[in-house]
Recover the amino acids of this structure.
């Protein structure tokens, strides 16, 4: 599975056209993403047929949320659900950088049967491996996108492999953070997972302001298909 971040309608159209299999829709990629507007969500869903998962993040200050933040997030989940999004991408931490399970449960209660991903907030926790154990308590969570901690995926390959082992196919571990055509095969083979998440790695000039690149998308898909554990 190759998931690519879209920040506008044209991104989403290009991702689908060039072979991406799922869109994560968010805005302000430079801030690690915040929730997109109602109109953007609606128009993306109108334009593409591949699954669209909407990031639910009210601001970029942290992953610690007040009661007011939580109300906004719940309403954003309801909007995404009403508009027909396939899934949501969420993450909640407490002041000790542990997963805030109470707030997580509140958000999951609004998700109904939507596909739920826990985002890279996990990379800010003290132990990504232990955080996987925590998230295993919540069967609504289908996957975790992670770089295995601070830095890029390639900085934390051994940690991610441990995360994959702990997840034991009950939650999918999706690689995300610094992936590109040059390191994709290594990352897949060293970690044992082939769900991958791209942001700048498939954009022109490898920059978050660049358009989705047909050439980079094709090269990434080719590298992904070369892996022994990924089936196209």
């Amino acid at each position: 599975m190759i998931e690519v971040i879209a920040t506008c309608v044209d991104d989403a159209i290009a991702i689908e056209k060039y072979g991406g299999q799922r869109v994560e829709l968010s805005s302000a990629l430079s801030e690690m993403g915040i929730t997109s507007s109602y109109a953007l969500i609606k128009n993306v869903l109108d334009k593409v047929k591949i699954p669209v998962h909407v990031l639910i993040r009210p601001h970029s200050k942290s992953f610690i949320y007040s009661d007011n933040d939580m109300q906004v997030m719940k309403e954003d989940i309801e909007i995404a659900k009403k508009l027909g999004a396939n899934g949501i991408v969420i993450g909640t931490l407490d002041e000790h950088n542990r997963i805030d399970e109470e707030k997580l449960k509140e958000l999951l209660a609004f998700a109904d049967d939507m596909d739920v991903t826990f985002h890279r907030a996990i990379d800010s926790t003290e132990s990504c491996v232990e955080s996987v154990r925590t998230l295993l308590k919540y069967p609504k969570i289908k996957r975790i996108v992670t770089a295995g901690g601070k830095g890029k995926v390639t900085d934390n390959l051994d940690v991610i492999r441990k995360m994959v082992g702990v997840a034991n196919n009950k939650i999918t571990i999706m690689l995300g953070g610094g992936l590109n055509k040059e390191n994709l095969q290594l990352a897949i083979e060293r970690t044992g997972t082939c769900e991958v998440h791209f942001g700048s790695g498939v954009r022109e000039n490898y920059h978050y302001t660049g358009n989705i690149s047909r050439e980079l998308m094709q090269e990434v898909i080719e590298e992904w298909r070369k892996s022994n554990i990924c089936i196209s």
In short: The longest strand covers residues 141-146.
